[in-house]
Design goal:
Distance between the termini: 28 Å
Strand content: 15-25%
Strand order of the largest sheet: 3-2-1-20
Number of domains: 1
Order of helices and strands: EHEHEHEEHHHEEEEEHHEEEHEEEEEHEE
CATH class: Alpha Beta
Shape: globular
Largest sheet: 4 strands, mixed
Number of strands: 20
Structural class: alpha/beta
CATH architecture: 5-stranded Propeller
């Protein structure tokens, strides 16, 4: 699809005063794509639309929900299912666009916001290549452009000069987390590793410069590796998340024999050594993992850190595990003004993603 030049902006978001807001800042809406790829949940797909309906039921109480469907027939089917689940359909907006998968955290636009001017919210359009792993990604790669056109928003395309030509920088929303005040979390495994390599030839320093220009980031805190079973090879949203400008929840594994124990211990050590922009230590809160979730011999990336912060609401994946209650209590204490709700993701995680992976927030003007 050709880029819509009328919306593409010259310069960078930082030059125009934009920054990426924290997830807890006020939302206009949440964007999701309705599940249709049965290959993502082989043998368990029938339950997945009902999980989605439950998530939409909660989200639609607190903000608008934009749902991407493939066609009119699917739109009508989804509307009927949502009505059966007593969803506030007046807060639902449907968009008929083709998609490959449902993970809008990674394929959808990353919104940025400024405090002045007529256009306070804009879109950054990063390239999406299905985690540098799968061949079917071209429909999903079009989503930021389609959203920009629909919302008539300014659109910034992160392009750098690399290997003698222009390179459209690849970035997935699940690989980063921000505090809205200049700090970013990410992992070396995902953005600097040689496996599933997103941007061959771009160095750590060059990536940090791109994040400064396009997301308003002043300091990147680099962690090491992600969790076992993570199909994305190191996304941050399964291991560490900002819950306040100075507070991070960090996933930990208590069993020394588990594959996650050592990598997560190393990540926590890095976090405890990290500082904010003024050199102050950050508040690190440990968040347990559930016991290993294994299906058909495959370790799945089950983590309570894959929660989603909506307006006065936090949706947390749960797994019928004793630590469900522990994790919900920890997050309830960290979000005293929010309703914290567990969403059972025992079947959903078979698709190798959970609640944060399937959502993308649009900031309020």
């Amino acid at each position: 699809m050709q880029k819509n030049e009328s919306f593409i902006q010259h310069g960078t978001p930082h030059e125009h005063g934009y920054r990426m807001p924290a997830e807890w800042e006020r939302h206009q809406s949440t964007w999701i794509a309705w599940p249709h790829n049965r290959d993502d949940w082989p043998g368990k797909f029938e339950s997945i639309p009902w999980v989605y309906a439950d998530i939409v039921r909660h989200l639609s109480r607190v903000e608008d929900v934009n749902i991407i469907v493939r066609n009119t027939e699917e739109r009508d089917s989804v509307r009927k299912l949502l009505s059966q689940c007593h969803v506030a359909v007046k807060r639902i907006r449907f968009h008929e666009w083709p998609t490959d998968r449902v993970w809008t955290r990674d394929s959808g636009p990353i919104f940025v916001r400024c405090d002045a001017g007529a256009h306070k919210v804009a879109i950054t359009d990063w390239r999406f290549t299905a985690w540098a792993k799968y061949p079917d990604w071209k429909n999903d790669n079009c989503l930021p452009e389609l959203v920009a056109r629909k919302l008539k928003m300014k659109q910034f395309v992160p392009i750098v000069h690399l290997h003698g030509g222009d390179h459209h920088v690849v970035l997935e929303g699940g690989s980063i987390d921000v505090n809205g005040a200049g700090l970013m979390l990410t992992t070396e495994e995902c953005l600097l590793g040689k496996v599933q390599q997103r941007n061959p030839g771009l160095t750590r320093k060059e990536l940090e410069a791109v994040f400064a220009d396009y997301l308003g980031i002043e300091k990147v805190i680099w962690l090491g590796r992600g969790i076992a079973g993570d199909d994305t090879h190191g996304h941050i949203d399964d291991i560490a998340r900002f819950v306040a400008p100075e507070t991070i929840v960090a996933a930990i594994e208590s069993s020394r024999s588990d594959a996650n124990y050592q990598p997560l211990q190393e990540n926590v050590q890095r976090l405890r050594s990290a500082t904010d922009l003024l050199g102050r230590k950050l508040n690190i809160v440990e968040l347990p993992l559930p016991k290993a979730v294994i299906f058909q011999g495959q370790r799945l990336p089950a983590s309570y850190a894959n929660f989603y912060i909506a307006n006065n609401l936090v949706l947390v994946p749960t797994f019928n595990d004793p630590n469900d209650r522990v994790a919900l209590t920890i997050l309830s204490e960290l979000f005293p003004q929010h309703e914290v709700i567990g969403i059972h993701c025992g079947d959903f995680i078979w698709g190798l993603g959970a609640i944060h992976c399937m959502t993308q927030q649009q900031p309020a003007e």
